[in-house]
Amino acid sequence: MSEQHLDVLIIGAGVSGIGTACHLRQDCPGKNFMILERRDSLGGTWDLFRYPGIRSDSDMYTFGYSFRPWTGGKVLADGPSIKRYLSDTAEEYDVTSRIRYGLAVKRAEWSTEKACWTVTAEREATGEEIVFTANFMIGCTGYYNYDAGYKPDFPGEETFEGQVVHPQHWPEHLDYRGKRVVVIGSGATAVTLVPKMAEEASHVTMLQRSPAYMMPLPSDDGIARFLQRTLPAKLAYRLIRARNIMIARLLFNLSRKRPAMMRRWMLKTVEKQLDNKADMRHFTPSYNPWDQRLCVVKDGDLFKTIREGSVSMATDHIERFTETGIRLKSGEELAADIIIPATGLDIQMLGGAELVVDGEPVVMRDKVVYKNVMVEGVPNAGMVFGYTNISWTLKVDIAAEYLCRVLNYMDARGLQMCVAKGGNARHANDTVMGGLDSGYIRRADDRLPRQGLDDPWRVTQNYKADIKALRFGPINDGHLSFDGRPQTSKNK
After folding, report:
1. pTM of the entire structure?
2. Which of 74, 141, 200, 308 has the fewest CB atoms lying closer than 10 Å?
3. Are 114 and 231 in a shared domain?
């Protein structure tokens, strides 16, 4: 066992962890920090997922960091390109040397008496236990379990004579050329995977229990390319980014305020893409737009494969797996050589690590979040959690900026401890993931912290409002306690 003390300890070297570290470099240059990463490489999601066609489902001009322009050209980038962007960013901001790989955080315990965190990690390759202490801890682990995705227990699965492959554990050399493939699911993974596999498979069927909203998005942005050719890189990036944020917010807000109108528009767009080559019942959800995440279809590729006949849709419940495929409750049989259950994620917080404050385990279900950046009653800790309705990274940037402001506020006043006090906050039924009704969020209701009904405990999913609160709002707003006592000064 070894021990090392740090000013700031970041858990996770994905999009959130790399972004937060870069902000520390810029805004808190004197801080000694380290990133603990369980995997052997940075990238998080973009290192884990290796299935064919893996790409962003947000445009890269808003998915890229505010401080480092995305210049890759494509609006929707493939996984390897995103990982290169993260690696280059970490290198440029001298973050790479601060990452410690192969360390799985098992327990994080806060001591008010010592005013610090004790974080126990395991070097998974050897089983060695390593202990770190830190004044401040920032969780950048995302929200899902990297060990296993969600997969229902399908009746008769053991009788299926073909291969069952979960997208989260894609074999390096899976051969699906000329084979019949059934992809179970209707989310972003399925929408990405199906058209890519259709390029080599004999036929692909997308089997869904219920339809999702889909929207084609061009992978090439002519206006963006023009601005990049004619303006300085950073200015062009800011303009493109601002435009795309405005469009994304407009579509989301209209979906909330005028759901019937947006529903008609979205379905009409899909109907035009299909050109009468598929039944619209497969593309007509039972819920309103943005009650669940919208699936982006790159260049309309899924619709194109349906029109060409290499992909077909099935909307039904599974009765059981058979030796040769899947039998649906309608009685229809889907023949398959390979079945891909793209059935969602398994949610967990802080990478599954145990969180303890002064000897008491923290039950996230009972906690409310403060500005969606801190958890009530958990001192000297931040939680960088992105948006669900627009690009994840937009929130990463301003959340990291805010935490740097908190650290600088404390340093300027000689303070050791900061904690959000949510005793008077009115808890809402919604979790930190907002009002989304996706299956993977419903399944994780007992593992996610709540949000409040009122600011600053409410999760707005509103970028403009969050900029005001996190970038410009006072640190000392009456809801934070410093060194064990509320502050009364309104100094920022």
Report:
1. 0.91
2. 308
3. no
Q: Which of 326, 76, 305, 304 is nearest to 201 (CA)?
A: 305
Closest C-alpha among 150, 188, 201 to residue 338: 201
What local confidence, expressed as pLDDT, does residue 7 receive? Answer: 97
Q: Do the Cβ atoms of 387 and 461 come closer than 8 Å?
A: yes
211 and 115 assigned to the same domain: no
- Nearest alpha-carbon partner for 282 in 318, 315, 331, 309: 315
Mean pLDDT, residues 352-372 taken together: 93
Q: Where a domain ends, among 341, 375, 410?
A: 341
Mean pLDDT, residues 141-161: 87
Q: How far is CA 150 from the centre of its chain?
A: 16
351-380 b/e (C-beta count within 10 Å ≥ 16 → b): bbbebbbeeeebebeebbbbbbbbbbbbbb
Q: Which long-range contacts (CB under 8 A, 24 or more apart) does 326-330 make?
A: 326/182, 326/207, 328/207
Lowest mean pLDDT among 22-31, 47-56, 201-210: 47-56
Do residues 105 and 353 lie in contact, with contact meaning Cβ atoms separated by under 8 Å? yes
DSSP labels for 344-368?
Answer: ---B-SGGG-EEEETTEE--GGG-B
Q: Are 47 and 91 in contact (CB under 8 A)?
A: no
Structure tokens at 375: 């958890």
Centre a 10 Å sphere on the Cβ of residue 290 and count the other Cβ atoms it contains: 23
Residues in a beta bridge with 341: 184
Same-domain pairing of 182 and 126: no
CATH of the domain at 408: 3.50.50.60
- In whole angstroms, give the CA distance from residue 334 to residue 351: 37
Q: Is the confidence at residue 449, as pLDDT, over 90?
A: no
Residue with the two structure tokens 């998915």: 63
Q: Identify whether residues 324 and 185 lie together within a single domain.
A: yes
Beta bridge partners of 385: none
User: Which residue range is the domain that position 422 belongs to?
Assistant: 3-146+346-486
Confidence band, pLDDT 50/70/90 cuts, at residue 492: very low
